[in-house]
């Protein structure tokens, strides 16, 4: 079987809940059996972690997007991954990255409103491990989860 990872990854990043074999076959000009084999191999090797839909946050009541830059207290910086893992468990947290530079963590959140962010911030960030938070509110998103979002006026 052919190795098609280089052709498949950019197509899968474009969104959808799972691979659409017919579309992938058309784009790669490869037979469905070859595509199935390569996709399963990529899943077993951990190249493909999950298939998921990319949702429009505003249409599901989570249109308030925030990037929170966090500095940890010195005693918590001993294990920033532990703090990141705990934050990642919250359903409103889209991603958590351990960083270098002025900030220790970058946390991307989606909530319904400014008030919801305030309440989440009180419970999530204002704990012993967080020293400082800088919140950046997204006014409009043009690309998320490798999918272009457009610039529709609202």
Report on the structure:
The protein has 154 residues and is α+β, with helices and mostly antiparallel strands. It has 2 domains: 5-44; 57-138, 2-Layer Sandwich (Alpha-Beta Plaits). The chain is 32% helix and 23% strand. The chain is built from 5 helices and 6 strands, in the order αααβαββαβββ. The strands form 2 sheets. Strands 2-3-1-4 form a 4-stranded antiparallel sheet. Strands 5-6 form a two-stranded antiparallel ribbon. A hairpin with a 2-residue loop joins strand 5 and strand 6. The longest helix has 13 residues, at 32-44. The protein is elongated and about 55 Å long. The mean pLDDT is 85.
Offer a quick outline of the entry:
The chain has 154 residues and is an alpha+beta fold.
- Biggest β-sheet: count, sense, barrel? 4 strands, antiparallel
- Number of beta-strand segments: 6
Helix fraction bin: 25-40%
Order of strands across the main sheet: 2-3-1-4
User: What is the mean pLDDT?
Assistant: 85
The topology string of helices and strands comes to: HHHEHEEHEEE
Measured between the Cα atoms of the first and last residue, the distance is 48 Å
CATH architecture of the largest domain: 2-Layer Sandwich
- Compute the number of helices: 5
Shape: elongated
């Amino acid at each position: 079987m052919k190795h098609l990872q280089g052709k498949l990854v950019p197509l899968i990043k474009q969104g959808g809940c799972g691979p659409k074999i017919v579309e992938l076959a058309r784009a790669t000009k490869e037979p469905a059996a070859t595509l199935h084999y390569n996709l399963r191999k990529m899943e077993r090797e951990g190249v493909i972690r999950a298939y998921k839909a990319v949702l429009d946050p505003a249409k599901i009541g989570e249109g308030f997007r925030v990037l929170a830059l966090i500095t940890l207290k010195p005693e918590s910086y001993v294990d920033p991954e532990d703090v990141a893992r705990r934050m990642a468990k919250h359903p409103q947290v889209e991603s958590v990255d351990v960083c270098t530079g002025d900030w220790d963590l970058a946390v991307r959140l989606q909530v319904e409103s400014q008030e919801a962010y305030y309440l989440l911030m009180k419970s999530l960030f204002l704990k012993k491990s967080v020293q400082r938070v800088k919140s950046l509110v997204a006014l409009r998103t043009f690309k998320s989860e490798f999918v272009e979002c457009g610039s529709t006026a609202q």
